[in-house]
């Protein structure tokens, strides 16, 4: 057997159904498999998702609650003890570096450092926000904090 001799198993492939091309095609003529008359027989027919035949749909019958603030700013958060575990002394901590190390996931574009745990290594931490405690701990360990805009 050679590569050019390979064929699909008989009966496993089908020709594309070409409807609406006259009675001689076997699947055409007047209705083309769509049934007789009605909304779904027309081009562009059918109803939208969630349509309940004119009855008030479930999403309109139930009360709406809450509020979604469109202007909310999302921060990726990282704690001081995580920095202690994952980074060598004098290394630079940025959002991009944390992404490479898979410590930050998702679409967030800002970083906030929180103060849980202890840190003993001097690190250069670049973030958009720092808690007071986190800033103190990093600077006491001999590191620097740089707040980005």
Structure notes:
This protein is of the alpha/beta class. 17% of the residues lie in helices and 13% in strands. The protein has helices at residues 58-61, 80-86, 95-100, 132-140; strands at residues 76-79, 92-93, 111-114, 124-127, 129-130, 144-147.
Task: Provide a quick synopsis of the model.
The chain has a domain at 76-147: Ribosomal Protein L15, Chain: K, domain 2, CATH 3.100.10.10.
Walk me through the topology.
Layout: H1 58-61, E1 76-79, H2 80-86, E2 92-93, H3 95-100, E3 111-114, E4 124-127, E5 129-130, H4 132-140, E6 144-147
List keywords for this structure.
Ribosomal Protein L15, Chain: K, domain 2; three-stranded parallel β-sheet; 149 residues; alpha/beta; elongated; 4 helices
Largest sheet: 3 strands, parallel
Strand content: 5-15%
* Overall number of strands: 6
Let me know the average pLDDT. Answer: 93
Strand order of the largest sheet: 1-3-5
Rounded Rg: 31 Å
- Alpha carbon gap, first and last residue: 67 Å
Uncertain spans, ≥5 residues at pLDDT below 50? Answer: none
Please estimate the helix content: 10-25%
- CATH fold topology of the domain at 76-147: Ribosomal Protein L15, Chain: K, domain 2
> DSSP helix count?
4
Overall CATH class of the domain at 76-147: Alpha Beta
Instruction: Write down the overall geometry.
Output: elongated
User: What order do the SSEs take from the amino end to the carboxyl end, as H and E?
Assistant: HEHEHEEEHE
Which structural class do the helices and strands define? alpha/beta
CATH-derived architecture of the domain at 76-147: Ribosomal Protein L15, Chain: K, domain 2
């Amino acid at each position: 057997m050679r590569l050019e001799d390979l064929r699909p198993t008989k009966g496993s492939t089908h020709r594309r159904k070409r409807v609406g091309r006259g009675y001689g095609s076997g699947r055409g003529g007047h209705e083309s498999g769509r049934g007789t008359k009605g909304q779904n027989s027309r081009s562009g027919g059918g109803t939208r998702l969630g349509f309940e035949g004119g009855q008030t749909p479930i999403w309109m019958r139930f009360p709406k609650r809450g509020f979604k603030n469109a202007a909310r700013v999302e921060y990726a958060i990282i704690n001081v003890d995580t920095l202690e575990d994952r980074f060598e002394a004098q290394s630079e901590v940025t959002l991009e570096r944390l992404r490479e190390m898979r410590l930050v996931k998702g679409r967030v574009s800002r970083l906030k450092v929180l103060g849980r745990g202890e840190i003993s290594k001097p690190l250069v931490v670049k973030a958009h926000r720092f808690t007071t405690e986190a800033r103190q701990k990093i600077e006491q360990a001999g590191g620097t904090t740089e707040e980005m805009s």
